[in-house]
Hints:
Alpha-Beta Plaits
Amino acid sequence: MARPLRIEYPGAVYHITSRGNEKKSIFKDDQERYTFFDILETVNKRYHWMCHAYCLMDNHYHLLIETPDGNLSIGMRYLNGVYTQFFNRRHKRTGHLFQGRYKAKLIQKDSHLLEVCRYVVLNPVRGGIVARPEEWKWSSYRATAGRAKRHSCLTTDWVLGQFIVTRGAAEKEYRQFVRGGIGKGTIWTAVKGQIILGEDEFVRGFGDYLKKSKDISEIPKSQRYVSRPSLDKLFTEHIRQNRKNRDRKIAEAVEEYGYTQGEVADYLGLHFSSVSRIMRGKVKMSKK
């Protein structure tokens, strides 16, 4: 089974989702949601996490978590593990509550975090469950907007700090900002390799980190090679016009950047056997 690549470092920020096994409910009543918040608060204190936004749905949840100590995995084991134990005891059941491993996208804080905060609290609106975000009790929207008491598992300082200085004015600006996101397209089209949302320079900064994982086949290739150049960048017109340079780039694309021979053949309009022959020739040359 493929396992997701986890990039952990002090100060990292993540959009986290975890879904119920077989799409079943993980929250059956208000008490279970409040218990989840209490467990999250314990995680925040124990592992020094900060939760910037959340949204609890019936069969999954969204969290925006900052990890000053770079300890996402251990905190998530506690959060999902302790909640599963509580849920199983309460319903006299055994086994997994959550479907596989949680998903965690690394977010560039200064350029994308505010937009992801908006995405999280608009989840019930996008799903057609409510018409306005304030109608959903189980997201962080109302507390951040100054419309409800804040649970202590949530911090609103950073989000509101992105708007006008005074708190009341900032809450108003936040409400307008969230409303402005209703009906907008998905923000995830810009995600690199399914795991990083940020500017190109931010993604390139993880090049050395990702190289350590490129030979671990259990991690999806799209994540192992998240910072690799596109085939367009590898095969410029100048490269394609020179057969020797083209063949050198074919070998580089396959061996260094993890593209399959079929992907390269399709892109260049070559037969698969031609690319295979080029690769065999490179192997022979390297053995001489």
